[in-house]
Specification:
By secondary structure, the chain is mainly alpha-helical. 61% of the residues lie in helices and 4% in strands. The two termini are 31 Å apart.
């Protein structure tokens, strides 16, 4: 992708700004649309047979630790975002923040995907609500 941007074979790429910074794409890219449509949290996965074999107290310890780690991760991601944005701006990247009309059009265009996911996964609507609340 770096070379394609450099050679102007492609006009743009879509990644979180942390990836833009770490990949050095600011050397070949001039603009960022600050849509904030992407979030890449760590996902905690545990073998259900193992987890169900633990005592209720052990399960609670793991659940509590995972929630605390997730909250801390959100803090780190927010700080990282601001640090990465400042770095990129200091290195010539122009950030454009979409206006409310553009944002609403993005939401409307993606609604069929949400509807499909909500229909197939009873837990998804609550999770999306929590993410949007952040």
């Amino acid at each position: 992708m770096f070379t394609a941007l450099e050679q102007k074979v492609v006009d743009a790429q879509d990644n979180p700004i942390a990836t833009l910074r770490s990949s050095g794409w600011n050397e070949v890219q001039s603009d960022v649309l600050e849509s904030k449509h992407m979030f890449s949290p760590n996902i905690y996965i545990i073998n259900s047979k193992f987890f169900n074999g633990l005592t209720k107290e052990q399960q609670k310890i793991i659940e509590t630790a995972a929630k605390e780690a997730a909250a801390y991760e959100f803090e780190l991601l927010e700080q990282s975002y601001e640090d990465d944005k400042k770095f990129l701006q200091d290195n010539g990247i122009k950030f454009t923040t979409p206006d409310e009309r553009f944002t609403q059009e993005m939401v409307k265009a993606s609604q069929p995907v949400y509807d499909e996911v909500f229909a197939e996964n009873d837990w998804a609507k609550e999770l999306v609500g929590k993410i949007k609340a952040e």
